[in-house]
Write a structure and sequence with these properties.
Helices cover 90% and strands 0% of the residues. The protein has 135 residues and is an all-alpha fold. The chain folds into two domains: 38 residues, no CATH class; 95 residues. This is YtxH domain-containing protein. It comes from Microbacterium candidum.
């Protein structure tokens, strides 16, 4: 789905930038795009994607805090300074992997939500435009 939505957006941008029809056609396309963007179904999907993105992004700070706590505990453990340093470094490496995984998961979730919202918004916009054209 991501590829199809990207292709459509890319084609639309390419057409607008590459059109030889002049400023008038550009303004016409711009006005239609603005009308489409401002449709209620489109904005509903945009709002849903924003909210999902916020909630998915909240997972990353939790992973960062947990990693910092683990490293601090490892560095404050008993032992010689060298042993504490080694423990801190080892824990930091493990925490970095956890943080990278949380970041990847958050990014994938946000990307999937955005693609799904874009597809739903496009479908809703098409049906809205079709209803208006039939009137």
């Amino acid at each position: 789905m991501k590829g199809k939505a990207g292709l459509v957006v890319g084609l639309a941008i390419g057409y607008v930038l590459g059109t030889r029809a002049g400023r008038e056609r550009y303004e016409q396309i711009k006005a239609q795009a603005l009308k489409l963007w401002e449709l209620e179904p489109v904005q509903n999907q945009v709002d849903k994607a924003k909210e999902f993105g916020k909630s998915a992004a909240m997972a990353l700070p939790v992973a960062l805090r947990d990693g910092a706590v683990k490293v601090t505990k490892a560095a404050a453990s008993k032992g010689t300074p060298g042993e504490r340093l080694d423990a801190g470094i080892a824990t930091a490496k493990d925490s970095a992997d956890d943080i990278a995984q949380a970041a990847a998961t958050s990014a994938d979730a946000v990307g999937d939500a955005a693609s799904g919202a874009a597809a739903k918004a496009t479908g809703a916009a098409k049906s809205s435009v079709k209803k208006k054209s039939e009137e």
